[in-house]
Design brief:
Blueprint lengths: L4 E5 L6 H14 L7 E5 L5 H10 L5 E4 L16 H6 L4 E4 L2 H6 L4 H13 L3 E6 L3 H5 L3 H16 L8 E4 L13 H16 L3 H6 L1 E5 L4 H8 L6 E4 L6 H14 L2
Helix pairs in contact: 1-2, 1-11, 5-7, 7-8, 8-10, 10-11
Enzyme class: isomerase
Subunit structure: Homodimer.
EC number: 5.3.1.1
Length: 256
């Protein structure tokens, strides 16, 4: 049975005080919660502080990060390697987020290289896929998601998806307040899983597929009631301990 993952992508938000307060709040809010994995991805410069605070926490909260480079070391100003992330206890690394694809011109092929490099170094890729509003309106959602997945599958084999996470995030729903209905999200998740199943039913059956895009405590239960939605990649609501914990609790209850 797939174990749900609720992960908070803090994006470009935070301060030392905020990190301390949010982790303290999450530790209290998540006390006794079981049946769901919870992860946070603060900005990289707060990984050290987050690692220290999580080490003292009673609740188990996984540490993640928002990006990685495709080089291990060298003259690559501003980049972060997998081993650096591991050095601070990060395990779940977000790649292919639409903001990276759009603002930094990261191609499907480049994201696939990151995916392979993370696997090579024993880290868990959280691979973001999803369509723009124009692509959605043109009925291209499934084709876009398949193309983004195939950049990995066609170069590394479908088995490369074992032990990884896929996050389906319709770009038009990220941070906009708009959200796909639970039924629409389930339909796309089922299509994504079917695309993988065409190569390997076993891999498709076991891979975790999160939904992301304006997930809130108010709509989380409806998403997690769907059979192919295995948690959430959460943006804005992850910056509030009570809201983020409520989403995690909803996942634990729905998938129990």
């Amino acid at each position: 049975m797939r174990r749900p993952l609720v992960m908070g992508n803090w994006k470009l938000n935070g301060s030392k005080a905020m990190v301390a307060d949010l982790i303290k709040g999450l530790d209290a809010q998540l006390a006794g919660v079981e049946g769901v994995d919870v992860a946070i991805a603060p900005p990289v410069m707060y990984l050290d502080l987050a690692e220290q605070l999580l080490g003292k926490a009673e609740s188990k909260i996984l540490l993640g990060s928002q990006n990685v480079d495709v080089n291990a070391s060298g003259a690559f100003t501003g980049d972060i390697s997998p081993e650096m992330l591991k050095d601070f206890g990060a395990t779940h690394i977000i790649i292919g987020h639409s903001e990276r694809r759009d603002y930094h011109a990261e191609s499907d092929e480049y994201v696939a290289k990151k995916f392979a490099f993370l696997k090579e170094h024993g880290l868990v890729p959280v691979l973001c896929i999803g369509e723009s509003e124009a692509q959605n309106e043109a009925g291209e959602t499934v084709a876009v998601c398949a193309r983004q997945l195939d950049a990995v599958i066609n170069t590394q084999g479908v088995e490369a998806l074992n032990g990884t996470v896929i996050a389906y995030e319709p770009i038009w729903a990220i941070g906009t307040g708009k959200a796909a209905t639970a039924e629409d999200a389930q339909r796309i998740h089922a299509e994504i899983r079917a695309h993988i199943a065409a190569k390997s039913e076993d891999v498709a059956k076991n891979v975790v597929i999160q939904y992301g895009g304006s997930v809130k405590p108010e709509n989380a239960e409806a998403y997690f009631a769907q059979p192919d939605i295995d948690g959430a990649l959460v943006g804005g609501a992850a910056l509030n301990a009570e809201s983020f914990a409520a989403i995690a609790k909803a996942a634990a209850a729905a998938k129990a």
